[in-house]
Amino acid sequence: MNLEFDDAVAMLARTPGTLRAWLAGLPDAWLDANEGPETFSARDMMGHLIEGERMDWVPRIRMILDHGESRAFEPFDRFAFRGAIGGRTIESLCEEFEQRRRDNLTWLRRLSLTPEDFARRGRHPAFGAVTLELLSTWTVHDLNHIGQIARVMSKNYSTAVGPWREYLGILSR
Amino acid sequence: MNLEFDDAVAMLARTPGTLRAWLAGLPDAWLDANEGPETFSARDMMGHLIEGERMDWVPRIRMILDHGESRAFEPFDRFAFRGAIGGRTIESLCEEFEQRRRDNLTWLRRLSLTPEDFARRGRHPAFGAVTLELLSTWTVHDLNHIGQIARVMSKNYSTAVGPWREYLGILSR
């Protein structure tokens, strides 16, 4: 299935509200759970998503449209958010993500992308030539982290579920 | 980690709002995507979650508290919802799930469960003796389906993401 611009934007627009409904006000036992050293908690993932709105998606779309293959994307630092989330409430992180995503989608819609834009190539530092398949990636990246947040939090109760563990595939991933 | 009753209820209470923020108004291309014959779409999972509120969690908690090991749980039919969701909008499904979950959590809180209740045993048709580890299971079951909804929808763009597929673990599960 190809990207449908309006469908992708519909999904991208819902992610902040989904995360707010899920995470705002949740006890820290859920928000700070992780899968071991150097793994992300739900709170970390909010920081990572905000960093993506700032430094990843929009700058790279711009780079494809403005510079084509002549300039490679800046590598995205997946851990750069760590300093920026210290001491902030989950509500503040949800708020910032919501605001940045809204602004970015307003900008994206105003681009009025054409089929020619979708055929244009940029240069990824590892993959080489890429296109605005970046928009599909942005969308799936959201879903990837929603799934990861569910998985990380579920592991709080890996043993508490007793024999039902067998029916709960999320605990084995 | 053991179940903390208030933490579990905080999570259970947020699931309906999370699903509504995510799914209400989404294009059918997302809601009806599945992973092949006999697999669940996001819309199917809403039906399955509603059926769980009706026929699974509360009746089984009651059975443990009222009958102990003397009576086994009724098996839960994971496909029973199919007739009940035909022709209904996603908004109507979100609404019903929200209402039933709210009522069930009100009932659950009013039980004022004691440590003795948590030690009580019931009888699962496949596992044999089980306890109110069922409450942890209810919670993880929600997270399992949130993760599954993310995964099923992400696969719409399995190929549209191009080379980024390599970074998106959700597409390989």
Top keywords for this entry?
mainly alpha, homodimer, 8 helices, 173 residues
Would you kindly provide a brief summary of this structure?
Two copies of one chain form a homodimer. By secondary structure, the first copy, chain A, is mostly helical.
The overall pLDDT average of chain A reads 96
Largest beta sheet of chain A, briefly? 2 strands, antiparallel
Secondary-structure element pattern of chain A, one letter each: HHHHHHHEEH
Structural class of chain A: mainly alpha
Oligomeric status: homodimer
Rg value of chain A:
18 Å
Total number of β-strand segments of chain A? 2
Largest interface by Cβ-Cβ < 8 Å: A-B, 55 and 55 residues
How helical, in percent, are the residues of chain A? 55-70%
Q: Given the C-alpha coordinates, what overall shape of chain A results? A: elongated
Low-confidence stretches of chain A: none
What is the count of helical runs of chain A?
8
Give the strand order, joined by hyphens, for the main sheet of chain A: 1-2
Q: How many angstroms separate the termini of chain A? A: 26 Å
Which strand-content bin applies to the residues of chain A?
under 5%
Descriptive overview:
Chain A is mainly α and 173 residues long. Chain A is 58% helix and 3% strand. Chain A is built from 8 helices and 2 strands, in the order H-H-H-H-H-H-H-E-E-H. Chain A has helices spanning 5-23, 28-31, 42-55, 57-67, 82-85, 90-110, 115-119, 133-154, and strands at 122-124, 128-130. Chain A has a two-stranded antiparallel sheet. Chain A is elongated, with a radius of gyration of 18 Å. Chain A starts with a helix and ends in a 19-residue tail after the last helix. At the A-B interface, helix 1 and helix 8 of A face helix 1 and helix 8 of B.
